[in-house]
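From: lab user (bench 3)
To: helpdesk
Subject: output format question, protein + uridine-diphosphate-N-acetylglucosamine

Hello, I'm new to running complex predictions and I'm not sure whether the block I got back is the full result or only part of it. Here's what I submitted:
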Amino acid sequence: MSTKILVTGGTGFIGSHTVVELYNAGYTPVIIDDLSNSSVKILDQIEKIIGMKPEFHQFDLCDQNKVNDFVAANPDIKGIIHFAAFKAVGESVQKPLEYYRNNFFSLINLLAAYKGKPINFVFSSSCTVYGQPDVLPVTEAAPVKKAESPYGNTKQIAEEILAETAAVSKNYNIVALRYFNPVGAHESALIGELPIGVPQNLVPFITQTAIGKRDKITVFGNDYDTADGSCVRDYIHVVDLANAHVAAIKRMEEGKSKANYEVYNIGTGKGTTVLEVIHAFEDSTGEKLNYMIGPRRAGDIEKVYGDATKSTKELGWTAELNIEDMMKSAWEWEKYIKNNPF
Ligand code: UD1
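Helpdesk reply: Thanks, we reran it on our side. This is the complete output you should expect:
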């Protein structure tokens, strides 16, 4: 029987890809998801890829009793990858309490349920904790800057909760992964990002425009201090990102952690502008994109990309897929969901 890893939020965008890569690496993924921002049909999609339907539990992690019952009934879970959280920056500004309640209660309930039990724990953090870094590429040693939104604040405070908990309770072995901008989809085009309503993020907006769901895409500003004036980000293929979680679990399992709370950047180390992303989409798919230059978006960071040296050295993980792979796979997924709506 292979090692069981709990994946909270396992039917979501990054969660579903991680379930697949865990399975490919020989683990047995077990999913908890309340389906508040995903579809139960993703389980069938995962089955089409890996040939088996993962064990699935539908409940809200904010319910401490349900979390405790799950932990009592599943003593063979050896690791947790905790994705389940709200993640829309703009919405978090409108609904701060919902964000703090959901993102903290779920984390605290999980940690509390494992009190005293040995557990390997991977947390979904974000490069948003760096704000606009003073030095690029940004390393893990860079200071955490004041959060721009309640969403960003939940990531910062969650990291503090984890560090403080790990400091006093050695049963927890924790890795926080600071993701840069996850995009793309599985090469099968059977799983991918399912934005609800109008997407706020760049790549789903690009693919929805190309397929005709949106008239045009606006580039938010071309007067930044960058090569072509548009913002720079570190886009990372979701399958590479998923594999970083597997690497983090392995590091802890193999007893390689230097401390029981560690932080890693998960990016490619390469900055790409918004216009470069648009051109990579056009070049790799052959689709023409109707785009225009518009004003800057409030709260946007000019440029951020990560130094992934520590992840490469210590996790033995490196991003392998490039921006063309990201665009092509995101486009195949967009076409798939047009013909197979969720
Ligand atoms: C945003 C969040 C970040 C979060 C991440 C999740 C902010 C400030 N940051 O990152 O905390 O972790 O989403 O994926 O909101 N763009 C356009 N036109 C569009 C959409 C986006 O030009 O229609 C540009 C943006 O200005 C930005 C880049 O594309 O320069 C990427 O934007 P987006 O995908 O929203 O990600 P971030 O803003 O980097």
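A quick orientation on your result: The pocket of uridine-diphosphate-N-acetylglucosamine is lined by residues 89, 126, 128, 148, 152, 181, 200-202, 205, 217-220, 231, 233, 274, 297, 299-300 (CB under 6 Å). Let us know if anything else is unclear.
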